[in-house]
Design goal:
The protein has 138 residues and is of the alpha+beta class. The chain contains 3 helices and 11 strands; from the N terminus they run ββββββαβββαβαβ. The longest helix has 13 residues.
Length: 138
Amino acid sequence: MSGSATAPDAATLRIGDKALRIAGISAPHMSQTCSEWVDRRPQNYPCGVYARAILASLVAGKTVFCVTVDNEASRNAAARCFVEGQDVGEAMITAGWAVAATSASNLYVSAQESARRAQRGLWAGTFDLPGAAARRPR
């Protein structure tokens, strides 16, 4: 499937009337808040909104090509999606705005470690994600 896409949340792309869950990632929900450290104090921010904005910017005005990898009975099929040859799931994890869904695959574990070490995106503070342990402050 290919075409122009929108991002209704940080882990889903919509191409036409089809919603595709990005395979191998877990991202904050739209209403989720996270914390980052500012002047040695935690500061809350709408990380779900931020993560969605990053995904939307990755696909804005570009043709997205997706390959379904899992078509469960669930509402959204899981797919690996690419923009200009770049793996969208890997880009989200590398930027630190999603984590590897290791229950599904180990595909993005090294990208996640890189983001964590560099404290990019979510890794700059504390957060909770489905299927992932909370990141604790140093």
